[in-house]
Amino acid sequence: MAIEIAPVKKDKSSKENIALLFSVIILALCFGLYFYFSQMLLPQKENETINLNSQLTAMGQEDIRTKEAELAAAAVYINDFKILFENNPKASNFFGTFQKWAHPKVVYSGFSFDVSGKITMAGKTSGFQNVMQQIALLNQEGTIQSYQISNVGMAENGGVTFSLDLVLKPEVLK
After folding, report:
1. 108/117 Cα distance (integer angstroms)
2. Rounded to 5 degrees, what are φ and ψ at 5?
3. What domain range includes position 74?
């Protein structure tokens, strides 16, 4: 007796056919979604991104132009003040020399500086003797070209008030 060995063909079941059909449908949907996103939706989003970037760049350029205009206006003011500063006397040098010849019992206020080196100030002290001592100090000072004391009078509280006009040598204010 001879036994024949041959492969047995199995009939495919309907469950396997249904699973294969669903797999093919899911694969087709995946390819369809990939095509939709890569060919339709992605270029639209890229165009929107490009448009938004160009708008932001334009807004940035406008902001930069606005800042440049503000800085140009500030530069005009700075240059104007620079001219005023360079042509005016240097008060800081004056106050350094002022301490050398100012009488300790005289209080000065209301300083007014002129471009030519003329300084006007008001003084107040307790008596006429302090005014005379201040005049002696002014006579000894080498940085003062000329001076004039005016409006000397008695104050209401018993002190003496006066006005002092000085003309300083030009090297003091440079």
Report:
1. 18
2. -105, 115
3. 15-87
Report yes or no on 2 lying in a domain. Answer: no
Reading the block at residue 46, the tokens are 């890229």
Quick: pLDDT tens for 95-144.
777 788 888 888 888 888 777 778 889 999 888 888 898 888 888 887 78
Residue bearing tokens 């100012």:
102
Residues in the chain where the model's pLDDT stays below 70: 1-2, 4, 6-12, 84-85, 87-94, 172-174
**At a CB cut-off of 8 Å and minimum separation 6, what does 140 contact?**
101
Domain count, the chain: 2
Residue count of the chain, please give it: 174
Q: Specify whether 46 is located in the same domain as 106.
A: no
Specify the pTM.
0.46
Distance CA 22, CA 2 (A): 45
